[in-house]
């Protein structure tokens, strides 16, 4: 079990590579089997990793036996193993949905899906800033190809924007890395955290520039305000399984912000203490605002879910700006909830749009659904969960965020914005749901195809998370609180990880 | 040497950003390429510029930092792959959308064009 930390990266890599080789590469059916087996293995190994990390503490895996800070390390702590498990679970459920027929639109869906999972897991596990860049590129190039999967004019156009934006983002990332390496002389996160306190004067200013470059890049990935314009269109036109998998992508950006700006540039960083907070705070609040306006203006279920992703991203970034243990714990819980719930909504939107013929998933009067009860029930649960109504997980998540505010100023900003955002979601969901399910004419559209069993199973699997996250809320919040504590504790998150560095 | 090097990196970056902000996909791709060249040179310089210093121990009196060179190598490989993808995507977009504008539609001609044509109708 010594190599457990690398399994979440290795399993998707191996399965993806095998699926590129004949004879599997020519046979869709065996690719589907391989994908299901691969994601199942991934989920099991991620669960084992989480269990081990929870009982035995942070695991450090030195690749090739080269010790940090010179070698490359994977760090599986409570935060990263939770997110790896979340990714694996999401990958399994989404793949269950995709094998019902959504993978037929183009070649190499399955290998690309695996490489995407590999990139995301790697980005969560890496303990080295340059490897974070490498895994970002792995997940990005897979996401470019997945986004254009099944083709079409709209997809091509949205992909052009997405690719160009992310290429510029990657260049900025490297500029930031170059500056940080030039000033700190290391790219190992724990080592950087130790060394950053010694910077003074001009060097500190230079390092600050580099760190803020990185904030721009992570903000782009996390859909922070000035860089969020690509998201609604991209997510709304992507095919359903791809959009559902992308629900975790903004969380990669948010996770990197937590990792870099609490571990490296946190409270112990001397002159560079909490450099991101003055930027994160207003931008996160504005992101929630603009996301809520987008929610109100959404013409279809898919655009609505994309805008909800922006709102949730803003809420998580607001927690990062509050920068306390409670806030980080709330953000972790909220990440798990919002990823699963919005993925479920993307999948539901796909079934809805297939059953309504030309009207697709737009909020307009159209023909009846062939299975209205199933879809209505599903949409209601997803809506209640995403709005943040009890008894589902969104309620707990939002309460945790509200409780994490510390000063009256924070309360004055966060409470109204989060609550008004929930109201906006409530208004849109009630307006949209009423139109979709009650304002219909005539019999079900003849060309509508009913949902297949595995598709329903996938959605039910994702939906189950909403009540389960509440029923086991005590255990989960205790876990996230411990994870947040170890992230904020410089002893645990830095010194323990680089043996041989004097304190 | 430092001044000249910094000037070149800055110039490449400026040109790259200017071209990346233009409307046609060809100039955008060229801009991204220039930007990635600038990044590679910049990364290389982050290990300090030195003369007569090999990155291998024992080959020369003083040695230069090998890590930025390893980083640049990785960055070049990734940059090439990404640029290749961008080129192919630009060609696909040209074929799918019928023009090479990054928005997928050609912008409307400037405002004076309709007045000119209405002037011609008189």
Layout of strands and helices, then pairs:
The complex is a heterodimer of chains A (503) and B (122).
Chain A: H1 7-20, H2 28-56, E1 59-62, E2 73-76, H3 78-98, H4 109-125, H5 129-147, H6 153-184, H7 189-195, H8 201-222, H9 230-237, H10 240-246, H11 249-264, H12 277-296, H13 301-322, H14 325-355, H15 372-387, H16 393-404, H17 408-438, H18 453-471, H19 473-488, H20 490-493
Antiparallel strand pairs in A: 1-2
Chain B: H1 2-20, H2 25-45, H3 66-97, H4 112-121
Helix pairs in contact in B: 1-2, 2-3
Describe the structure.
The complex is a heterodimer of chains A (503) and B (122). With 503 residues, chain A is mainly α. Chain A is 72% helix and 2% strand. Chain A has helices spanning 7-20, 28-56, 78-98, 109-125, 129-147, 153-184, 189-195, 201-222, 230-237, 240-246, 249-264, 277-296, 301-322, 325-355, 372-387, 393-404, 408-438, 453-471, 473-488, 490-493; strands at 59-62, 73-76. A two-stranded antiparallel sheet of chain A has the order 1-2. The radius of gyration of chain A is 22 Å and the shape is globular. Chain B is mainly alpha-helical and 122 residues long. Chain B has helices at 2-20, 25-45, 66-97, 112-121. The longest helix of chain B is centred in the C-terminal third of the chain and has 32 residues, at 66-97. Chain B starts with a helix and ends with a helix. Classes of the chains: A mainly alpha (503), B mainly alpha (122). Chains A and B meet through α5 and α6 of A and α2 and α3 of B.
Structure in a nutshell:
Chain A is 72% helix and 2% strand. With 503 residues, chain A is mostly helical.
Structural class of chain B: mainly alpha
The stretches of 5 or more residues of chain A where confidence is low (pLDDT under 50) are none
- Compute the number of strand runs of chain B: 0
As a percent range, the share of helical residues of chain B equals 55-70%
Oligomer: heterodimer
SS element count, helices of chain B: 4
Radius of gyration of chain A: 22 Å
Biggest sheet of chain A, strands in spatial order?
A: 1-2
- The radius of gyration over CA of chain B amounts to 22 Å
**Backbone shape of chain B:** elongated
Q: Report the portion of residues of chain B in β strands.
A: under 5%
- Total strands of chain A: the figure is 2
Helix and strand element order of chain A: HHEEHHHHHHHHHHHHHHHHHH
General form of chain A:
globular
Separation, N- and C-terminal Cα atoms of chain B: 65 Å
How large is the count of helical segments of chain A? Answer: 20
Mean pLDDT of chain A: 90
Largest interface: A-B, 28 and 36 residues
Quick check: average pLDDT of chain B? 86
Low-confidence stretches of chain B: 116-122
